[in-house]
Amino acid sequence: MLDSILATLTPAALGRATLMLVGFIATLFVLTKIVPGPKHEGATLRDGTKRTYKLNGLAIWLLVTAGIGVATVAFGFSLAPVARHFWPLLVVANVFAFSGTVLLWLLARRKGLGKDRGALAGMFYGAELNPTWWGVDLKMFSYKPSLIGLGVINASFAYLQYETHGTVSQPMLLFQAFYFIYLTNYFQFEYGMLFTWDIIAENFGWMLVWGDYVLVPFFYCIGGWVMVSRLEPLPAPAAVGLCVMFLCGLWMFRGANEQKHRYKRDPKARIWGKPAETIGGKLLVSGFWGIGRHLNYTGEITVYLSWTLLTGFQSPWPWLLPAWLISLLTHRAWRDDCRCREKYGPLWDQYCQRARFRMLPFIY
User: What number is the average pLDDT over the span 187-207?
Assistant: First the structure.
């Protein structure tokens, strides 16, 4: 396997991959500048300031998707070269992430930031909270090449399957549909990102840069490799069951997050048809938050399990994604509980009596 990967890393392939990646990111950056979108004020940042963001991610995602579709039908455009250049693209993305991290650190140091840390720690964690370029918040922008890039790479596997086998199988169609719905839903609620810990408190360093430009687009698509050769249709009950599983997981994941954001914007909001109920006016116990303390994590894991189950059990590689996510989110749920107990004290103990489990009833 290693030999076949190394064989793809020719100078010509790396050159084409560089043009693909840089052209893709540059196109998204230009679209971010020129495509209109609603303005939203973000949360109070760690430094006490607030920013107003133009949220045009949904418009750009749909524009890119429609553009690819029209080019495919009208001009025979194919994304299969993206899949064929996967490993060169991965190498180039790593180079981009590392060089971008160094550049961000140097620019921050020129502003007098990050002097409390050494060079390596400063580059790893970042030296500036929200760097901007040409009026674009780079941290918020990076979610676009990250997630739209994931969508493009996933779609390239469908093109590759068609060019290799002359068909796009039923499991592949479901795989593409799940990802398209998930990504569309993400950008539909893009404003929720403005209230995440990454945006509010984390400096923009290697940890976030590498995650955005390498980890998400190149690891989250891992199941696509198996889907290329998965031609047999799923039995109807299995297909319907996975669709239900995916939609229920997405409802739980997005619904829980949306309830929290809605309450933060308006404490008088109605959740599941009733006025929002809280403990001490601080801890929401309506909707999903009155059932479990981190059902948003449970829903996200369910989503990932549903599209991994589409790949079957012929290869262990796709299962690395849900395994990694389960370990990440179970630890995050424990970490969040510790932070909340420290922040809210006895109120948190009262909340835990109401929402008795973190993610799974009677288990965790």
Answer: 86
Averaged pLDDT, 209-215: 95
Q: Strand pairing partners for 279?
A: 283
Confidence of residue 63 (pLDDT cuts 50, 70, 90): very high
Which ranges in 35-118 belong to alpha helices (H)?
Answer: 57-75, 80-84, 86-110
pTM of the model: 0.92
Q: How far apart are CA 184 and CA 161, in angstroms?
A: 23
Q: What is the DSSP letter of 211?
A: I
Strand 283-284 to 278-279 pairing: antiparallel
Contact 127, 108 (CB under 8 A): yes
257 and 227 in a single domain? The answer is: no
Residue 354 is predicted with a pLDDT of 82
Pairs from 283-287 (Cβ < 8 Å, separation ≥ 24): 283/344, 283/347, 283/348, 283/350, 283/351, 284/259, 284/260, 285/351, 285/354, 285/355, 286/259, 287/255, 287/256, 287/259
> Do 21 and 89 touch, CB atoms closer than 8 A?
yes
In the DSSP assignment, the letter for residue 44 is P
Q: Which of 188, 203, 233 is the last residue of a domain?
A: 233
| Mean pLDDT on 53-72 | 95
Q: Burial level of 308, CB count in 10 A (0-12/13-18/19+)? A: buried
Task: Specify the 3-state DSSP secondary structure of 115.
Answer: coil
> Residue 364: pLDDT band by 50, 70, 90 thresholds?
low
- What tokens appear for 346 in the block? 């006895």
What is the pLDDT at residue 96?
96
Same domain, 211 and 243: no
DSSP of 313-328:
TS-SGGGHHHHHHHHH
The average confidence (pLDDT) of the chain is 89
> How does DSSP assign 265-301, residue by residue?
H-TT-EETTEE--EETTTEE-SGGGGTBTTHHHHHHH
Same structural domain for residues 163 and 198?
yes
Beta bridge partners of 298: none
